[in-house]
Amino acid sequence: MNNKVQNNRAWLLVLPMLVLVAFSAIIPLMTVVNYSVQDVLGPNARFFTGTEWFESILNDSALRAAFARQILFSLTILAIQVPLGIGIALIMPKRGWQASAVLILITLPLLIPWNVVGSIWQIFTRGDIGLMGWGLRELGINYNITRNAGDAWATIILMDVWHWTPLVAMLCYSGLRSIPEAYYQAARIDRASKWAVFRYIQLPKLTNVLVIAVLLRFMHSFMIYAEPFVLTGGGPGSSTTFLSQSLATMAIGQQDLGPSAAFSIIYFLVILLVSWVFYTTIMHMQKDKNPHGGA
Amino acid sequence: MYRIENTQQGEKYNTIFSRTTPAQRRKRNARSRLRSRVLLSLYLFLMILPIYWLINMSLQTNSEILGSMTLWPQNLTFDNYLRIFNNPSWYMGYVNSMMYVSMNMLITICVALPAAYAFSRYRFIGDKHLFFWLLTNLMAPPAVFLLPYFQLYYSVGLFDTHIAVALAHCLFNIPLAIWILEGFMSSVPKEIDETAYIDGYSFPHFFIKIFIPMIRSGIGVTLFFLFMFSWVELLLARTLTATNAQPIGMIMTRTSTASGIDWGTLAAAGVLTIVPGILVVYFVRNHIAKGFALGRT
């Protein structure tokens, strides 16, 4: 990053991309902003409402509950997936046909369409035809995701761990592969314990990829939609209704343009804030690496 | 050879300094390797189980699925798959999904390559802000864009076409592609560019003839990620289509009718959505680890 040439003609290279992304990001976002401050009753009947929609969204107790659930969900899956992902990466074979086979198998859940992931788990956890639901019932455990909120939560978390731990594991695995063999030899000569090797050789190399992993996982879990929608439909009651689902119901189901636009903006601002924190963290880490670099 | 020599050297040091004999140490190493193999197999087994169950169901008749608990198909049947392959309204779902995914991959890679080159080689006014803005698009929840997309594509007459979904998926795929490609490009030494320019290559000539072949594994991995994120996304694809360009994920919901859910066909359709992913990951298996680190290791 440190020996880049100053050249404003580079904008020409960025331009095609900019036009496309602007078409699919800026125009829609402007529409949202437009709706969020108006009450649209018909094609020619719209009134300026100011911050009314924002106030009503911020005071909506159902949405507040969804927000709290969302935070709880994101933090829970991070707390499980990050250590589990590191653990799996550490025990994955490093070379040979086994390494290829394990790689392909591990990435498998990432390549399944999200609603199919929901379907797989819906089938898998059904008491009558699913292996897990049937097995738990045979063991005498009263397990029912359509009635019991606790079961629904546990299943959604299990599903997300199943679905996304591979991403964390793959990121960590690629980080581990970049450690030169000589480091391990030096550690062996020093008679370093396994823990010391992990703490002083592997973990420092992993911090970079872990920041990316946490960023991606937090963001994706924050916009989770299809999987819980198919698996539980947000129920029982609204115990597993997350933010995206509340928003989709409001925007498409009820066609409440104003409130859903205001909701979208608040949702987006939260994401923006978190992205910014991560972005500055990543940039600082890169700066620490090459302290003489200008960028 | 280098590695073997080094390990032997390490072995020698170890015999000098450590109290455990090499035999003991080898035994301990073997035991820890066995333990990690067992743990890994256990994880893989638990991971495969739900997928196995789907495959298992797709090979059974509905009466067998609902009738009794069978851990493997008693009367193996491929009827569920045949039903999908013989019905255009089913298999067109796969064709539709494939079409918008490949359109998206093509558009994205064409605009992302020059942009990533600009980010990796030049400093220009607003470059950092632009990069951050791109990242926010990667993080934007599709639900936020549902309604405006619907209205935008409806008003320009693109609703229910493949290109509409392909363009919508550019929202998160272009930033992702630029992020990954930038990493791969930055690992190519700048001297190569400079030498080529001194040799009289024009920028387009150099870029297409020399630079792109040099990062082709990076491009392959990028295409894999583009495929992955466009293939698995459904919320936008579903909202922007009605009948002509409907993705397979949406057609799958048709299995629930008044007379109950057609579990066998649903399972077979699900299995078929996994197959393209396996094919794609097989092609990039040797480069995928680097790709997951966004080309930065």
UniProtKB/TrEMBL annotation, chain A:
A Pfam family hit: BPD_transp_1
Chain coiled-coil ranges: none
UniProt keywords, alphabetically: Membrane, Transmembrane, Transmembrane helix, Transport
Domain of life, per lineage: Bacteria
Annotated GO CC locations: plasma membrane
Transmembrane segments: 12-33, 71-91, 103-124, 152-176, 197-219, 260-279
Signal peptide start and end residues: none
Location in the cell: Cell membrane
Topology of the protein relative to the lipid bilayer: Multi-pass membrane protein
Domain ABC transmembrane type-1 residues, every copy: 67-278
GO annotation (BP), single: transmembrane transport
Similarity comment: Belongs to the binding-protein-dependent transport system permease family.
Protein name: ABC transporter permease
Source species of the chain: Vreelandella nigrificans
TrEMBL record, chain B:
Membrane topology, as annotated: Multi-pass membrane protein
Matching PROSITE patterns: ABC_TM1 (PS50928)
Protein localization: Cell membrane
GO process annotations (BP): transmembrane transport
UniProt-listed PANTHER family: ABC TRANSPORTER PERMEASE PROTEIN, MALTOSE TRANSPORT SYSTEM PERMEASE-RELATED
Stated family: Belongs to the binding-protein-dependent transport system permease family. MalFG subfamily.
UniProt name for this protein: Sugar ABC transporter permease
Naturally occurring in which organism (per UniProt): Vreelandella nigrificans
